Amino acid sequence: MKYAKIALSTPINKLFTYQVPDDFQEKIAVGQRVLVPFGKKKLTGYVIELAGETDVPKLKEIEKIIDEQPVIIPSILKLSKWMSEYYLCPLGEVLASAYPSALKKPKRKQNSLPKKSDKQGGFVLTEEQSNALDSIKKDIDAEKAGIFLLFGVTGSGKTEVYVRAVQHVLEKNKQAVILVPEIGITPQIVERFKSRFNNEVAVLHSRLKPNERYLEFERILKGEVNIVIGVRSAVFAPLKNLGLIIVDEEHDSSYKQTETPKYNARDVAIMRAKLENAVCLLGSATPSLESYHKAQKGDYKILSLTERIEKRALPKVEIIDLREEFVKKGRPEIFSDVLKEAIATRLEKKEQVILFINRRGFSNFVLCRECGEVLTCRNCDVSLTFYKNKNVGKCHYCGDQKKIPELCPKCGGGSLQNFGFGTEQVETELKNYFPDAKIKRMDLESTRGRESFEDIYKAFLNQEIDILVGTQMVTKGFDFENVTLVGVISADTNLNLPDFRASERTFQLLTQVAGRAGRGEIPGEVIIQTYLPEHYAIQASREHDYKNFYAEELSFREGLNYPPFSFLTNIFIKGPNEERVKEASQKLVLSLCREKKDAKARLVILGPAEASISKIKRQYRWQIILKTNVRSFARKALVSAIERTELPKGVTIHFDIDPQGIM
User: Fold this and answer.
1) In the chain, what percentage of residues exceed pLDDT 70?
2) Do residues 566 and 629 make contact, with C-beta atoms less than 8 angstroms apart?
3) Which domains does the chain have, with CATH numbers?
4) pTM above 0.85?
């Protein structure tokens, strides 16, 4: 085999042919990483094909074979090729996600052999759990590519069904992947599985050190473990005898990668299961509208867990109308009297409290009361979030930050004022009201250290923290028996976003965070503060009523022809020159309109228009949205239109297939 076709992690969607030196003839294999010259650079590539002849003249040689054995197994290569076509992404960029080139082999390593697992763990399944498990086992035994939606209320024991299904897979000498949406949930679920399966579990996520991640990957590749737990990239775990993929909290938007390749790990997991005749189990108390719609149509098999373990009651939910609070007090306040009294009562009883606010920082923006100037990021078209403890304004898009000046930079006035509030201000106010309480904040800023999340988690588990204030991190997966009160500081944050998923996200967040209360013997209470108490998403969350919410939201989506009744492609045109970006956007729409004329399928073109955030990282952004009832046609139309559109210098086009939002 004298020639190799190599996939490189570049924006160019093609394979590159290189000559295989004589010294490498006996060593090279499909799936290995190699080092190759590319222009003036040397890049890591992935061997996709080997051939004895080629029509390509004047080839460069492969310089180095990085791996002794292939690191991309055949099933992952097949999956990656599907992703490249589906998400319109270069194969090399997909493979770079499957096996990040940053992984380095450590000088020393220790491998531990799997220990015997504890099959049952002492739990007795409910009738609903047993019925769900029997259905899953049936498809596992048949080696059938089944897709299940495990729709269970919070606290109904979905994790125990996961554990038993994994146990059954191991008994069949097969392997399992468990996906969780965020690193934050990982310690709790890892602890649960390791207590049952010991060293048969490997963990993959970005907070592992490079050498730790390499060791875990190598253990998986060598077949030393049969269970892999991790965030979205764990969907590529190189297990060679896969029997089951579990996607916990399948509705979560964290499964959607925001950088290229912009894949949704849930959808990739479903495709991997289909390609390998494995079972895919999606679990959620608040399924995505698309998944539940497919279950209703019969595309997925639905399994229901309608009651909490030991028939514990779902928490009572009280809604506080902040409009009435404002009229009563004449000013906005973070905490209503009802919420403050409820917190005080729980502290007296030595019970724990979770408070949820979906904003970081001390305040949302800083404004000059004299001239109206808002302090904004120099790189992005967004206001800076104020962090009081460091006296800085920080951009949550590019990470840039600067000290807050004493005087307004525009008019020189001394009337700069903070508006809105986030987790930092909530924490500060709590300490004023409850000075003796042990209070901790859990958000992206407070958990940046590698051990920070686990430290907070363990301290809360050991009841060393009375009140935990957090963002979305505290809404998912937490199972603490002593948490009896959950407070939602403001339920309207997502509802006010210009996005068709705003209501769905609000309902999911409220229902999920409410589900953290009352998981032990003491009944739980939830207090939701809102300026929109009559909104159907908030009303449905009060009653824990997914089905009524689903019916209302589905009607809204159908009327506007949004998913699940259509397929969306979000196109961003970016560049440092605003006029060139606008020109390129208009050209691309004209090309798309030509494709539309030839279409038998319906294609709606929305735009071009400035994106809602018109500049990020000094790149101006315009946006086009494609809406169609035939997914494949939209991709074909987009590829043809881009090929015909000549882009001005410095302008690039980025697209997102099946976007989670359209902002």
Assistant:
1) 95
2) yes
3) 3-98 (3.40.1440.60), 127-310 (3.40.50.300), 312-362+421-556 (3.40.50.300), 567-657 (3.30.70.600)
4) yes
